[in-house]
Amino acid sequence: MSEKLPSNALVVQSALREQGVSGEIVVLPEKAPTAATAAAQVGCEVGAIANSLIFDADGAPLLVLTSGAHRVDVELIARTAGVERVRRATPEFVRAATGQPIGGVAPVGHPAPVRTLVDNWLGKHEVVWAAGGHPLTVFPTTFDELVRITGGRPVDVE
């Protein structure tokens, strides 16, 4: 299957293997611009989708892996991260920080580590689906595994 993966997804698959993750990247039949469309394609609850949101936190990238059932409270995240301002990152900022496009940002496989916060709500699901580095790719994982492979900090996001 990896022969059919987009190049960014191959980078992510390699990073996952290096971290001992056994979940395979899956190519979706169509793009999933929302957590609801991703959930429908993989057959899970919306809350089990780990949205990868890159924010500009005082000029540095901040990855928030949030449940598809939540909206991120940027003021809460700023306080949690200890920064003055958190705002939505531009597509160029996201690509520079992760090497991946908006809509497909994986929790790993970035050119350099990105500070990461992981929504505690994801821990309510046995299996969580995260982006695989391309808008058509996802992979199954767990809350604990996401925290481990990202070095992320479990937090409340709303």
TrEMBL record:
<protein>
    <submittedName>
        <fullName>YbaK/EbsC family protein</fullName>
    </submittedName>
</protein>
<dbReference type="Pfam" id="PF04073">
    <property type="entry name" value="tRNA_edit"/>
</dbReference>
<dbReference type="InterPro" id="IPR036754">
    <property type="entry name" value="YbaK/aa-tRNA-synt-asso_dom_sf"/>
</dbReference>
<dbReference type="InterPro" id="IPR007214">
    <property type="entry name" value="YbaK/aa-tRNA-synth-assoc-dom"/>
</dbReference>
<feature type="domain" description="YbaK/aminoacyl-tRNA synthetase-associated">
    <location>
        <begin position="30"/>
        <end position="148"/>
    </location>
</feature>
